[in-house]
Design a protein that fits this description.
8-stranded parallel sheet, binds phosphoenolpyruvate
Amino acid sequence: MSRQYYIAGNWKMNKVKGEAVELAKALVEQLKDGKNKYMIAPSFTNLDAVAQVVKGSNILLGAQNMSTEESGAHTGEVSVLMLKDLGVQTVILGHSERRHIYKEDDAMINKKVKLALAHGLEVVLCIGELLEEREAGKAEQVCEEQTRKGLAGVSAADMAKVIIAYEPVWAIGTGKTATPEDAQAIHQFTRGVLADMYGKDVAEQTIIQYGGSMKAENAAALLAQPDVDGGLIGGASLKAETFIPICKTY
Ligand code: PEP
């Protein structure tokens, strides 16, 4: 497999500046010999401080969201230009908390995806079904729709900067993890959707992360699946002791 493992930490709405800097420093130190691709996504207010810490390291700086617009009358929003100005390299879009708590739909997420790519940012596009959708046998359908709509208008060339994160909503922050087989099934299915959209080569090169209560104890089995290329980690990314072992699983 030519795909590289990509382990990312989504810190969500956690940590004040001093705590964020302290964790980022620990990660820079402990991952400097790491073989994989790494990213951390602090809150907007901590991006500038964490940027100074990760600069020149092997850890990418990510944002957890961004506006659909570049500038203007959008109170409370943060634009791609502001993120780039701080040294942000990648942005998580379509996270289930954005979709389900803040009601972001596929059209809005797609607009953000295209804007981020137009400005040269890498995009981590999150997809994933609710528990009731899984129980109704609709997991594949939901993931296909979110993938197709989220990537509408994205070129094959731009796919080099797109990562898909499969995050079953019922597994996020709940302690319930998809079995390695369940994760593999959706990852393989999603890669098939990408192959249909962009051809086999692009599909084979696209990193598909798993997210949903990933921790040191289950990371090895999940990452051993042929189509699981990394992890997007929430809770376990908040401490070096719990994040580093996942980063160094393989
Ligand atoms: C996430 O929100 O991206 C996530 C996977 O969270 P957790 O690891 O806490 O389930």
